[in-house]
User: Fold these one by one.
Assistant:
Number 1:
Amino acid sequence: MKYAISIPIFIFLSFFVVKFDDAFAPAYFQKLEQTKPAVTEKTVTVVAVGDIMLGRFVEELSLRNHNWNYPFASTSPIFSGADVVFGNFEGAVPKEHKKTPIYGYQFSVRKEAVEAAHRAGINAVTLANNHSYDFGASGYAETVSVLNRIGMATVGKNSDYVYGENGTEVRFMGWNDTFAKIFTSTFSENVRASKKQGEFLIAAVHFGEEYATSSNARQKEAAHALIDAGADVVIGHHPHAVQEMEMYSGKPIFYSLGNFIFDQYFSEETQKGLAIRMTIRKKDVKYELIPIDLYQSRPRVDTNVPSQSFALPR
C-alpha cells in the first residue's frame, strides 16, 4: 500500500516547523558548533644540514656531467615538506670566478651552482665559518649579495634571519668559533639581545676539530652558554664528521652534522652526514634524525642506518 501526505496535512506540518523554529534553533546550531572541524595547528618545518661546498671537485663533477643540478639529484626526500632548508655554506661567490684547484683551499663557487642549490630547496645558509672570507671582505659582500638576490637568506656577521610564516617564528643565528674563540659572554649577549618572546632560536656554530668524531671541551662550553642564554637547539659544523648529540637543560645540541656536499673522499666519516628535520609547533618540537650518505658528492638518505625521532616540549 502506498502512502501520500495530503496537501492540507503538508501545509499544517510546514506551519508547525515554522511556528516552532525558534524552539529548535538553539539545539540545531549547537549541533553544528560541535561538528565544526578542528583548526589544524600551525607548524614550521626546518631541515638543517651540514657543510655545503660547491666548488673545487664538486664543480668539476658538475661540469663533467653538464649539469649544475648534479649534487642535488637525490635531495628531494631529505628536503621534502620543509619551509626552510638551512645549511653551512663553505666558500665565496666572488665577482670573478676562477675554479679552485683540486688541492686548493680558497673555495670559489660559481653563481650557477648556488642557483642550483636554491632550486633544490636550500633557502637559508650560515656564512659564519672559516671560508666565507676566502676572497676578502669584497668577496664576502658579493657572496651575500648573490645569495640574497637568488632568494637565499644569509646568517652571520651580526646578521640574523627570522622565518615567521604560519604564526610560529623561528630565528636563525650563526657564529664562527674557529679563528678566534668567542667569549661565552658574547654568545649570551648576542642571544639575549636578539631573541624575541615566543621565538624558537636555532643557533649555528662553526667549531671543533676537523675530522674529530666527538666534541671537545670548548664545543661543550660554547654550546652550553648558548642554551643557557636561550637558544632552543644548537647545530654545529666544521669537523667534516658527524659528532654526538647531547641533551643539556632539556635542549638538544648536535655538535656536528658532518658534510652534506663536499669532495672529501679519503675516509668513511667524511662521506657521511646527518640532517635534522624539526617540526616546530607552539608547544613542542619533533626532531627527526636523517642519516646521509655522500656518494660522489651527492647526498642521499642512507637507508642502511635507521632514522630516529623524538619530541620535546618548548
Note: The CA atoms of residues 145 and 303 lie 37 Å apart.
Number 2:
Amino acid sequence: MAEIINLKDARKARARAEAETKAAENRTRFGRTRDERNRQALEDQRARREHEGSRLERPLPGKSAEKSKESSDSDGDSQG
C-alpha cells in the first residue's frame, strides 16, 4: 500500500526547501567574509582621513560661522 502523507506538512517542507535554496544563492551572491568587511572598513576610514586632511580650512571646535558673525555685528553696534 502507498504511504499516507499530510499535504499541509508536504507543502511546508517544500516551502522550507525552496527558501533554503534561495538563501544559499543569496549568500553566495551577496555575502562577504569577515576579512573582506574589515578590509573595506579600514579602507573607508583611510579615505575619510585623507579627505578631511585635504581641507583648506578646518572649522574651530565649538564655534560656528554664525556665532562669529553675530558677535562681530553686536560689537559694531555697541560702539556707535
Note: Residues 61 and 67 are 12 Å apart (CA to CA).
